[in-house]
Amino acid sequence: MNVAPSRMWRVFCAVEIPESVRQRVLQHVASLRAAVPDAHASWSRDPNLHLTLKFLGEISQTSVQKFSNAASRAVVGCAPFTILLGQTGAFPKDSSPRVLWIGVNDAVGKLAKLHARLEDESVNAGFKKEERDFNPHLTVARLRQPRHARTLVSAHMQMGFEPAEITVSELLVIRSELGSEGSKYTVISRHPLEVSDKL
Hints:
The protein is α+β, with helices and mostly antiparallel strands. The protein has helices at residues 19-35, 64-74, 110-124, 149-159; strands at 8-16, 41-43, 50-60, 81-91, 99-105, 137-143, 164-168, 170-177, 184-192.
């Protein structure tokens, strides 16, 4: 008997951005596009605006539940907390910029601790550990050509982004389906943070 191969899903875990803050980010994007209209970039759209904590990429459909279970374990004993979205910057810093971002101020370190717990639970569930340092940010644009890139980065930095407070109250496990008109996102599971804070 032939067994059909498992379907692969593109999956990540993220924190939802409130509608009011998403609108402010989209206004920032619109201002940048107007300021540097000749820049070649892929701009973030409303459905793309998540604060990603762990990106798995393509995993088998049968492994998705294992990842959701890991997210459930990661939030145990963690109360909701707030972070600030606000700093503007670009990656990489010392060469041709490719990504514009708005950064996160995690002053008390609770987001970093939650991320570390998610990493540990994911590794325990058999997923690969992320080797890069955790650097939470919201991607505003991906630059496709170096032409006008530095002008765009300069405008991004000069405009800045007035700090916005975000309450982290749950983790979302999300499926991303790539398409010609952009990615389609489907929330697979939600994992609310609990009231008792042991972080």
